[in-house]
Write a structure and sequence with these properties.
Layout (H helix, E strand, L loop, with lengths): L4 H7 L6 E4 L3 E5 L9 E5 L11 H21 L4 E5 L15 E6 L18 H8 L2
Antiparallel strand pairs: 1-2, 2-3, 3-5, 4-5
The protein binds guanosine-5'-monophosphate and zinc ion.
Length: 133
Amino acid sequence: MEGCIFCKIASGEVQGLRVFEDEQTLAFMDIAKDVDGHILVIPKKHVKSILDCDSETLFAVAHTMKTVSNHLTENCGYEGVNLLNASGERAGQSVQHLHIHIIPRKRGDGIDAWPKFNGAKEDLKEIYARVKL
Ligand code: 5GP
Ligand code: ZN
């Protein structure tokens, strides 16, 4: 999509540090410098988020997520990964092209990758009745 930075990285128009790619997906280094080894996995075609992603593309993204995660833990000295995703601006998505963050983890790395929640305010059973499929 015109103007989308991740489409430009996928096509090669903008340089990215490409960790792994296949026909449908790309994994590349995040530029944030917030944590060592921060990697993003994207579909090469423009999809806004998981909320409007077709199943085949989502499967391809998940497969690459696993390939890269296994590589990090089997060959790169990491012991686990956190996989993070924001879908929708209200959820904190800042780039409107589907991406999964891979945060590689090691014992003693001091990273707290789990969000601090504010505490539930609604009754559990009322929410359950609303969200149950
Ligand atoms: P979000 O907040 O949407 O979940 O994450 C967007 C991520 O994209 C951020 O971690 C940000 O650092 C990364 N990002 C934004 N622009 C670029 C860019 O031009 N190149 C790379 N490699 N990462 C980017
Ligand atoms: Zn895009």
